[in-house]
Amino acid sequence: xxxxxxxxxxxxxxxxxxxxxxxxxxxxxxxxxxxxxxxxxxxxxxxxxxxxxxxxxxxxxxxxxxxxxxxxxxxxxxxxxxxxxxxxxxxxxxxxxxxxxxxxxxxxxxxxxxxxxxxxxxxxxxxxxxxxxxxxxxxxxxxxxxxxxxxxxxxxxxxxxxxxxxxxxxxxxxxxxxxxxxxxxxxxxxxxxxxxxxxxxxxxxxxxxxxxxxxxxxxxxxxxxxxxxxxxxxxxxxxxxxxxxxxxxxxxxxxxxxxxxxxxxxxxxxxxxxxxxxxxxxxxxxxxxxxxxxxxxxxxxxxxxxxxxxxxxxxxxxxxxxxxxx
Amino acid sequence: xxxxxxxxxxxxxxxxxxxxxxxxxxxxxxxxxxxxxxxxxxxxxxxxxxxxxxxxxxxxxxxxxxxxxxxxxxxxxxxxxxxxxxxxxxxxxxxxxxxxxxxxxxxxxxxxxxxxxxxxxxxxxxxxxxxxxxxxxxxxxxxxxxxxxxxxxxxxxxxxxxxxxxxxxxxxxxxxxxxxxxx
Lengths: 326, 183
Fold this sequence. Notes:
The structure holds two protein chains of two kinds. By secondary structure, chain A is mainly alpha-helical.
């Protein structure tokens, strides 16, 4: 019987890495959006910048713990193997994490920076020299960070898609699917954080921005998943059989029910319901707090389930038949 | 003296296999394979109902592919291939990420829990380098397995592959497997 070499820790890591990528992307985008040269989404950008580095930092930690010899993780960084997606990915991940923390630092107010550096002993002069105002650098850091955030989002899919031995993964659509799922998870997480922030309640135009962003990403993801299913059905027998895992096989329910309907179509419907009166009839945007929370929560669960389904079903799929008599 | 190029391979005449698993046992004893793990196995396939039935035993292990996907995906270079084709794991460099196990189309690798590294068939390199043959080949009572150098035109494997029809498993993965199954 086939065993699972990659388990739940990998699923969680793929989800958290994508989440950070999406958060950074949404934050950077919000920073660039201006109305009459005024940064109307600055609070969204600040919240995104504050959240972005943590999931990927936690995820990388989990990844290291999943290794057979966790203390050997440094060996990833004394080799570079361009043929190995994991090697490329570990560098991407590290650079992205550094940029994400830098971006967070650039969004700290002067008071917050003073507080942070007050924790550092006064004798550590070299550290205190880092207490600089980077707020004018935000746009530049975001610009440099964009390709790396896209890179991290897409790499989690490439990691799986590059494995020719697993027909469930080995299509050129998995990378984009993971990327759009990552971006939409990021937008949803940001929406969740904005709505839950009681101290300074989210304003309608901010929620509208995030809802719009999420609708775009969910739609893109949906139109990757459809061709994935159609191509797979029209592909070689091994790919068709691999797709059987979600078309009648053990992962059918979790794919169609919790993931596709609850994690993708329902939040899409909620967000369209929120946006449509505004777009078609010119009514004021609802900005319902509960609907935003529901949609965002479902998107996050859906993003997690997508990775769960792919990591597990992919490992079951194979060209190889190993028969054992009983 | 110039070294002659070598390419080791196994030719398997699975119709001779009686599923005695002597090769599995010999491998475990020779290479100290942990309990619960195996470097080779015998695939079993039964077809039909009595009285029209057939049974097929097919030994399998690492195919020591020409273009091994396990070596390609390894992030540290711990999975590597010798010039003579033998695919090996450098245990000191292996971080235990198991990407190679996921990438192997033949499920030929296992995870050594105690050491935290991936391990696999080495074609008994410690024997082969002394001019000996692998333990599984030596022990096989029905002479299913033939080990040799494909570059050596006088070798038995060269003769078999020149004169007999054969197949390799899952060539569509592009790995170029080097276990040859005679038809």
